[in-house]
Amino acid sequence: MAASGSDCCSAFSDSKQIGSLLIGAFNMPKIIKFDLPIDGIRAKNIDELREHFTLEILPYFHNGLLAKWLAVRKLTTELSALQAIAASTDPAIFKDLCAVFGVEADDAVIALMFNDPTPKLSLTVAEVVKQTESADKVINLAALLPIQAGTLKLFTERTLVVDAVDLDGTDLILQSADGTLIFKSCQLATKITARYLAFGDGTVLDIRTSLQWMRCALGQTWDGKNCSGAASSYNWNAAHEAVAALNHDGGYAGYCDWRLPSIDELKTLVYCSSGQPKTWNDTGKKCEGECNRPMIDLIAFPHTPISLCWSGSPTGNSSSAWLVSFGSGSANYYNRYGNGHVRLVRGGQ
User: Fold this and answer.
1) Would you put residue 282 in left (φ > 0), alpha (ψ -120 to 50) or beta?
2) What are the residue boundaries of the Lcl C-terminal domain, all occurrences included (predicted)?
């Protein structure tokens, strides 16, 4: 049946409104599903978020990204609980977030996280004594930390490094009275230069960068005092394969996470005895003036080859990669099929 004129106008008016609503609906922005970067991973689901729950979550709460992350996953229960948080201080907000995501944490642990009393990697026993104001030769590291008895195993992935020179018969207690583990292990190190602590396993710790380096190039052997034998030569791809094989076959000095250094990390090893352009020459430019060669601290890295040393950093050209010449101290790119030596590092990044 044909509609009357007024009905047509009414229908036309309604269709415009409906069209307007539809257009508005299609113009509404949609949130793209994204993963949440936290604790070195990108959390795809709530279980991964719980597993890697750290203070890094606070900025995501404040800027709204955490709410969006929940919304695109349709986690309505957690989203409602998140939106109901009324706390004003970060410790209180973090405690509420722990409750929202089912992460166990009490006030003592939260206080520990925010006060960050974690001893630094280069902390010496002498510094611990100073902090605890103890005249005893027994240093209880648990006394430094505001923890409750039996609450959590703290710092289980951390290693305390102390200078052997500072020990002087001191006994280290790595557990509190109730057995709560404070550090995974304790490594004794000897300060061999102003910059390097040496372990007895053929590695050194750079106290400026907190990077742990092999004292010898691949192919050489640490005999307790020096690097003996000839360093092996690799093209860039073969260098990566050699690192993977070493880690797969048991690693070195108890670690299986060795890697090629980045070019910026490798440049921190360059030592210009002339002081030009810098003593620790991380500029990538060659050392100037009269310099000892190779351009590296030979106390920390004895018998270093005066040659090219690969980094793990590619260039924008698929046929080249970055390296350092310890013959000149300079950093340059080089054909990946050319040969260079390899010194491995762990930590950092």
Assistant:
1) alpha
2) 202-346
255 and 337 share one domain: yes
Tell me the pTM.
0.56
Q: Residue 230 sits in which domain range?
A: 212-349
Q: Are residues 224 and 348 in the same domain?
A: yes
pLDDT of residue 100: 93
Note whether 99 and 125 are same-domain residues. no
- Is 1 inside any structural domain? no
The predicted-structure confidence for 46-66, as pLDDT tens digits, reads as follows 999 988 888 889 989 999 999
Do 45 and 123 share a structural domain? no
User: Where are the strands (E) in the chain, listed by range?
Assistant: 36-38, 41-43, 138-140, 159-163, 171-173, 185-191, 196-198, 203-206, 211-214, 221-222, 227-228, 308-314, 320-325, 331-335, 345-346
Both structure tokens of 96: 């509420």
The residues pairing with 227 across neighbouring beta strands, listed in sequence order, are: 222
Read off the pLDDT of residues 334-345 as tens digits, 9 standing for 90 and up: 999 999 999 999
